[in-house]
Specification:
6-stranded mixed beta sheet, FAD/NAD(P)-binding domain, 21 strands, about 25% strand, disordered C terminus, alpha/beta, single chain
Length: about 450
């Protein structure tokens, strides 16, 4: 009998995971609460496939600058303090990962996953000629205006190249020669790190295109407009998930709901160390002077990405901001900083397409992939700012774990690394002798 699997969450992580499972022969249903796929954190993120930039957020440098951040002096990174116990616990774990050893270990782990993801995306493209998402390989350029930070980046570059990256350090003149758009900026350039193999692509178009292919070729079922409310337990396993239309049953469940994952996991008594990091983007028409290479201005932490006839500008990191509203003062600051750095990067007179996304961060910047204490519940969540970059590789690892293939790389992303305790104090709905009259089979729902 083919195992029925329910994947919860229809962003890029959910769709790639569902596709990887369906390709392995599982009967897969994807549950998405919105009316379209990839409408949340996936929809208009930075769009860069930053395989060479897997640096963990927690680092000795960030720890040294923490007083500066807490005082609000860094316009790109804001911390909103909270007495929420889950936030405080997350912060303690995060600070513990700011040592040199933890930073190096976390960065190497995510780098290995990123390079695996690059291979998996290339395999998908080779297999499906109709996978369309404005893909390109323009390379990526990190621009530094601080000589000391540039030298530190050169040292990190050697470590990454040893693991399979292709990076090289450029002088200020070489940076401008590589990307002439930078010659029209008004800011000082100390140097740059160039990664010629890094890619770009529209993550929303990719997600929707891949879903159509998986529905056509692998019988993936997609349920739109249906939120998972809670897990229904039957002994040690999960029997189904409750929705407003009843219970959807399956043999196994995969939680790929990003920042919504902890709430749903908690209904099964599992605590997930995931907290949102709020970010913004603006999409504007490109001009003849727009950069062709993807650019990151390291001081302002703003990225510029060319997508067909548009420029996507993304940045800002607000920790502790759990609301899903677009704050005008943050988007105004983003656009003003971008315009100062590259005054001819976009048509600034056009109305920008503004976006906000909550990026699911773990304390060590590694996603959580694989098993949980509940035998038939699996995870693929917590990718932070690299969800698009890591999606294809994470999906392959999650599907391999569920299929019993036990990939070696997956060991670095287990939930067990946090040594969390499960709990039975949370009220959960368990199997009763009387099955609900509202229970239903996923095949009865509208599918894409």
């Amino acid at each position: 009998m083919v195992k029925r699997i329910l994947v919860i969450g229809g962003g890029v992580i959910g769709v790639t995971t569902a596709t990887a499972l369906a390709r392995r022969g599982f009967q897969v249903t994807l549950l998405e609460q919105a009316s379209t796929l990839a409408s949340g954190a996936t929809s208009r993120n930075g769009a860069q496939l930053s395989y060479s930039y897997s640096d963990a957020l927690g680092s000795p440098a960030l720890l040294r600058g923490l007083p500066w951040l807490l005082c609000g002096f860094d316009p790109a990174f804001r911390v909103r303090l909270s007495v929420d116990p889950s936030f405080l616990t997350w912060v303690v774990r995060f600070l513990a990962n700011c040592t040199s050893d933890c930073f190096n270990a976390n960065t190497r782990a995510v780098l290995r996953l990123a390079l695996h993801s690059r291979s998996e995306l290339a395999a998908l493209q080779a297999t499906h000629a109709d996978l369309m998402f404005h893909h390109g390989v323009p390379g990526k350029l990190h621009v530094y205006d601080d000589a000391e930070k540039f030298e530190a980046a050169r040292s990190a570059m050697a470590l990454k190249n040893a693991f399979g990256c292709d990076q090289r350090a450029l002088s200020a003149d070489e940076v401008v020669a590589l990307e002439p758009a930078l010659a029209k900026g008004g800011l000082h350039i100390a140097g740059g790190i160039h990664s010629p193999l890094d890619e770009v692509g529209d993550p929303q178009l990719f997600t929707q295109s891949l879903a159509r292919i998986a529905m056509r070729e692998h019988d993936l079922r997609v349920v739109y407009g249906m939120a998972a409310e809670r897990f229904i337990l039957d002994g040690a396993n999960i029997r189904g998930v409750s929705t407003r239309h009843g219970i959807i049953e399956a043999d196994a469940f995969v939680l790929t709901a990003g920042c919504d994952s902890p709430t749903l996991a908690w209904t099964a008594g599992i605590r997930l160390p995931i907290y949102p990091l709020k970010g913004y983007s603006a999409t504007l028409p490109a001009t003849g002077s727009s950069p062709r290479i993807s650019i990151t201005h390291t001081r302002s932490k703003i990225v510029f990405c060319r997508l067909d006839q548009h420029i996507r500008i993304a940045g800002m990191a607000d920790l502790g901001a759990v609301d899903r509203t677009i704050r005008p003062h943050r988007t105004d600051r983003l656009l003003a900083a971008a315009r100062r750095f590259l005054p001819e990067a976009a048509d600034w007179n056009a109305d920008p397409q503004l976006w906000m996304g909550l990026r699911p961060m773990t304390p060590d910047s590694r996603p959580i992939i694989g098993a949980t204490p509940i035998p038939n519940l699996f995870l693929n969540s917590g990718h932070g700012m690299l969800g698009w970059t890591l999606a294809c590789g994470s999906a392959d690892l999650a599907a391999a774990v569920i299929a019993g293939e036990n990939p070696v790389l997956a060991s670095e992303f287990r939930l067990a690394r946090f040594r969390l305790r499960t709990t039975t104090t949370r009220p959960v709905e368990r199997e009763s002798a009387h099955r609900s009259a509202r229970e239903c089979d996923p095949q009865r729902f509208r599918t894409g």
